[in-house]
Specification:
This protein has 286 residues and is mainly alpha-helical. The chain has helices at residues 7-42, 48-52, 65-96, 100-114, 118-132, 139-163, 167-175, 180-191, 193-209, 212-217, 227-231, 238-248, 252-285. It is built from 13 helices and no strands.
């Protein structure tokens, strides 16, 4: 077939192939450069004292243990709230909703929410959760704001996964006398676990990388609290701490150390996502 191509067609195909190769190389090079630059600048500044202590303004030491714990707290609370709500909304829209116009309106609203800048979420979260609901600046207010931000992601990934479950499985379960809810939680949901896990992983990645919304709602305190006490008080996550140390205090070494931690966390999350996806596909193949 290649011998039948005109010289002009062969030249066009060669140019397109070269452009694709160059694009792939450019993306890979930029990604590797970013990872290498952050790790080279950040890893030498990591120390056991930095990771396991809190800041002390009297002694002049800097520690990010409160920021690490605040990040863990806000991830846990956000997932505990957003996963049931997002999965429940996806199940309703896919399995129960009879009014397709209403379902389409909800899906359109979710798509709109996913495109709103995070700084607007932070402003609305500050006005609603911090002031109107009286939560003040706290990790709980920040987690609720992140729930609204991540709800479209969890809902859409779960919904798309639910749609991939063959209708014949549902009909077979109904034929055996199973009720609607029994079919959903014994047939449909187990078949869409990969979508739920993907939504969870994407949400964790967005929570770890969010700073603008949390500056307005969670604050930037570096105080060490327990879990329940910490949720009621302001606190800085790792990304907010990175901003504070780099922009407000000029501690670029600490900022790059935090960036290296976030980079490693992002790589671990992506690696875990790949392992979970392969394991689920292998289980479905059996």
């Amino acid at each position: 077939m290649n011998h039948d191509m005109t010289p002009r067609r062969r030249f066009y195909n060669g140019c397109m192939r070269t452009l694709m190769y160059l694009s792939a190389v450019l993306v890979a090079a930029l990604t590797l450069f970013l990872i290498a630059y952050v790790l080279i600048r950040g890893v030498p500044n990591l120390s056991w004292q930095l990771l396991t202590t809190k800041p002390s303004y009297l002694s002049g030491t800097i520690g990010i243990l409160p920021d690490i714990l605040n990040t863990v707290y806000i991830v846990i609370l956000t997932l505990v709230i957003v996963l049931p709500v997002g999965v429940g909304a996806a199940v309703y829209l896919t399995e129960y909703a009879k009014n397709r116009r209403l379902a389409g309106l909800i899906e359109y609203a979710a798509e709109t929410l996913s495109g709103i800048p995070s700084i607007i979420y932070g402003l609305v979260g500050m006005l609603v959760f911090c002031e109107l609901f009286g939560m003040k600046t706290s990790l709980t207010a920040g987690a609720l704001t992140l729930c609204i931000m991540n709800l479209p992601t969890v809902m859409r990934t779960t919904q798309e996964s639910l749609k991939t479950v063959p209708q014949s499985l549902r009909e077979g379960a109904f034929g055996l006398g199973a009720g609607k809810w029994r079919v959903i939680h014994t047939v449909v949901l187990p078949g869409s676990v990969d979508g739920i896990v993907s939504g969870c992983i994407l949400s964790v990645g967005r929570i770890l990388g969010e700073s603008a919304a949390l500056l307005f709602t969670a604050g930037f305190a570096h105080t060490l609290y327990g879990f329940f006490e910490g949720l009621q008080n302001p606190g800085a996550t790792l990304t907010v701490a990175l901003y504070v140390y780099a922009k407000e205090q000029g501690e670029f070494g600490v900022a790059f150390a935090i960036a290296a931690i976030l980079m490693v966390l992002a790589l671990v999350i992506n690696f875990a996502a790949g392992l979970v996806g392969k394991r689920l596909k292998r289980r479905e193949g059996r």
